[in-house]
Amino acid sequence: MKKTFVKILSFCLCLLMLATPLCSCRSKDSSDKLTVLCTVFPVYDWVKSITQDTENIEVELLVQNGADLHSFQPSFSDMASIKNSDIVIYVGGESDKWVSDSISENAVAVELSSIDGMSKHGISKESVASESEDHHEHDHDNTMDEHIWLSVKNAMIACEYICHVLSEKSEINAEKISQSAKSYISTLEGIDKALTDMCVDASSPVVFADRFPFVYLFSDYNIPYYAAFEGCTTDTNADFSTIIELAEKLDESEYNCVLTTESPNDALVSKVISQATKKNAEALALNSMQSLTSQDIEDGASYIDIMTANTAVLQKLFKAKD
Ligand SMILES: [Zn+2]
In what order do the strands lie in the sheet with 57-61? Predict the structure, then answer.
């Protein structure tokens, strides 16, 4: 009995001796690094771009691999990542409200929707054909639409703010961060200018045969729209009257195109197009950056490229007149 006890004790001591140097190495490593955790891809990409060429800044993405922000369930390791991060950047809407409760007391919490000057919109429902179940159950009047990254103007304000926070937390990298942010924001300004010039005459409603997470993009440039479903509702079963309503709007619209998100309901799109009697419209997709996989990110997907592609889609739409 005594022998067994001594054996166990010495085994435990061995483990302890092995573990101690490992632990001390780890804590040293992590204390040297500034870890920045972002909840969604666009924000992760902004921070990656602003911190390129810096040392000891690690940027992590929380909601990965096409997971849905709106129904995201954090795992224990996700909670640990939030707790261990020095800076946590999140939207601050209904879907990621829980993030703020998990941030360490010593960390900097950046709630994007609270930054001065950021535009905020409610979930679109005025120009929506179908009323979802959610819509009946909840009063959406005060519910903020969470897709604030789809405003290039918001992206510029957010990058400026994030640059300020990062420079304060990492003085040795402040110069590089400021330079990268300046050049990144000037690229965003280019996209904003292209959109402003292009949308100046947009007066005919654009038919959106899908959910509508683009209220920020469309509001920034006063593009009128008529969408099948509000925000990012999961209730996307269109009844016949919704299809007919959208088809009628398409017939009235100047444009010979129907827009969708990056993951459209193809059956709905083709029904809307076939019910329109005056034209044979083409379907074009705008990317809301909510379905990107880890592979897409590894392959170099970027906010700038996606918003540039979205700009090209709108340009194609405006040119596709009767
Ligand atoms: Zn969404």
Answer: 57-61, 34-38, 87-90, 108-111
For residue 229, pLDDT over 80 is answered with: yes
∠ Cα 202 204 205 (to 5°): 110
Least confidently predicted of 17-21, 53-57, 160-164? 17-21
pTM above 0.90, yes or no: no
Q: Where on the phi/psi map is residue 65: left (φ > 0), alpha (ψ -120 to 50), or beta?
A: left
CA of 30 to the centre of ligand 1 (A): 33
CATH class held by domain 200-319: alpha beta
For domain 31-116+124-193, give the fold.
Answer: Rossmann fold (3.40.50)
Among 191, 219, 194, which Cα is nearest to 305's? 191
User: In this structure, which residues have their CB less than 5 angstroms from ion ligand 1?
Assistant: 213, 232
CA of 86 to the centre of ligand 1 (A): 27
